[in-house]
Amino acid sequence: MLSKTERAVLNAVLIKCGERYNCLASPADLLCRLPPKSGVSEKRLSEILECLEYDGYISVILSDRHGQTVYCIELLTRGKGYRRETSQSRRALAFRLFLSVLSAFLTFAVGRALYYFIK
Questions:
Q1: 90 & 73 share domain
Q2: In this structure, how many other beta carbons lie within 10 angstroms of the beta carbon of residue 27?
Q3: Phi and psi at residue 57, in whole multiples of 5°?
Q4: Number of domains forming the structure of the chain
Q5: Which of 48, 49, 89, 119 has its CA 20 to 30 A from that of 39?
Q6: Which H, E and C letters describe the chain, residue by residue?
Q7: CA-CA distance, 81 to 65, in Å (whole number)?
Q8: pTM score, two decimals?
């Protein structure tokens, strides 16, 4: 299970990569795609990318271009399926909420029917 900041960084990587499975990204590119409230520094960003690499979402190679740090990021199998996984979890949550509302309504209806039947 990913933390909130790890999800935000992975979403930033997915946005940067677009439809491709690999991309070059500087820390500034990824940091500007993060929500302002995340408060992630460059050091914390590199730690989060290492965690995502360890969890099997991405593969990161640190490179140097004109004196600037650049990440060579490749999406792995779990990284490629992350968008699908999030949409499925949202769909499952919506279905569970629908079942909760439906069961509450049925409980209310059965309770009222029993009340009028017994009375």
A1: no
A2: 18
A3: -90, -40
A4: 2
A5: 89
A6: CCCHHHHHHHHHHHHHHCCCCEEEECHHHHHHHCCHHHCCCHHHHHHHHHHHHHCCCEEEEEEEECCEEEEEEEECHHHHCHHHHHHHHHHHHHHHHHHHHHHHHHHHHHHHHHHHHHC
A7: 30
A8: 0.80
Q: What is the pLDDT along the chain (119 residues), one digit of tens a residue?
A: 789 999 999 999 999 998 889 999 999 999 999 988 888 898 999 999 999 999 999 999 999 888 888 999 999 999 999 989 999 999 999 999 999 999 999 999 999 999 998 87
User: Whole-angstrom Cα distance, residue 99 to residue 73?
Assistant: 41
Range of the domain at 112: 81-119
